[in-house]
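User: Structure with adenosine-5'-diphosphate, tokens only please.
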Amino acid sequence: MRILFATSEARPLIKTGGLADVSGALPAALRAIGLDCRVLLPGYPAVLAGARQARPVSRLDGLAGGTVATLLEATMPENGTPLYILDAPELFQREGGPYQDVAGHDHPDNVLRFAVFSQVAARLACSDTPLSWHPEVLHCNDWQTGLAPAYLRLAGHATPTVMTVHNLAYQGIFPPEDMTTVDLPAESFSLNGVEYYGSLSFLKAGLYYADRLTTVSPSYAEEIRLPALGMGMQGLLTTRGDELVGILNGIDTVEWNAASDVHLPYTYTSRALAGKSQCKLKLQQDLNLEPGRDTPLFGVIARLANQKGLDLVLAVAEGILHRGGQIALLGTGEKTLEAAFHDLCAQHPGRVAAVIGYDEGLSHRIEAGSDIFLMPSRFEPCGLNQLYSLRYGTVPIVHATGGLKDTVEDGVTGFVFHEPTPHALWLAVDRALHAYTDPKAWKRMMRAGMSRDFSWEKSAREYETLYRGLVG
Ligand code: ADP
Ligand code: GLC
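Assistant:
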């Protein structure tokens, strides 16, 4: 079965969050169970620089904004997954991140950039494709690919499409005038189409036109049918409820393996945990924290965004320190949160470390070196860091939402609290600190988490079943 997996990020080439982890690993997992899954990415500088054996296969024209582009064929580094790259230099070869410039402002032409990307995904999946490889299913991910199902349907093509929502909070919303930029028929700007509260929404387009909708955990698939987390799409998602499923993300168990992780100073397994204590001491040293084997060390790694509930971490921080704990945070994002963690660190030298920035190696060292991982997200479609924590014997404290609720077992592999309030988080922290004083019970908990299987195979089989249901 041939699947085209269209995504705007895939590690190790380009990453801003969990979408990249999933897009780096799921296509390879699908290939491992016998599907011919290929990835389509925009030609960002990092993609062009890191892809293997890139060569042009076709010229693409007739795209929105008069864009002329080249389609490259290549392979992903590390796992060799076949890759197509949309090389459109005037859209994608620029400084800054995939969506924002160096100063942190959205690129002003994002509407055109991702309309063209969606158009190319649709073209590769329809009978007019310039390739000899014809996908049987087009799998789109998040708003950046949301227009692809609309382009296919509105042009009368029947190739089945899947739209996966990794985060309903990012919708690709643009003013109605942009309907002309994206080359969609004016009639599609309606409730039964791409219109969303008077604007054009790329994600809404995908949710309306795709044949099947998925999201990345069973709980989130339920939560987004209700106003609290439906972000205005709850009506549509409820109407399409029979076509919406939650398939839990897996993790890359080669990249995240404490027994062989190249980023760690020491390695360990659930039977031989000594290396984890050494990782902790080394982490304390590297981050200028007071050395202490028995000091409970709380790790936090996150995009500093409202979603992640980091204000709750700030609210309980003094309490953690008062009880003898330490905090090691790695993150980047909203300036006010960056400043608040920077201040906390300045006020408590040796007890709090706040690294503001993006650092993949350090994220592995914090996962390995911490005792406890804090993830009090207000909402979390799946979440990957709690899974990395479980696998690394770092006991997670999580809010009972989305994928956090589906993956952490309260009192067995971690601590789960039910209201996103400082008080509820504090009670969970208190329970964790209490449990930490009993080394035997604590080890049992670490090992319980380490024994859970979050590899991709099971989820890859669920995607396969979904695709087969579409192709017949
Ligand atoms: P989201 O996609 O909402 O950000 P996830 O938990 O699904 O949340 O995935 C986040 C991914 O990004 C994880 O792989 C995490 O380790 C990584 N990450 C987040 N912030 C940083 C950072 N500052 N440095 C390194 N990795 C980070
Ligand atoms: C999003 C979500 C996160 C999820 C990731 C990968 O960024 O916020 O919960 O794990 O996508 O699906």
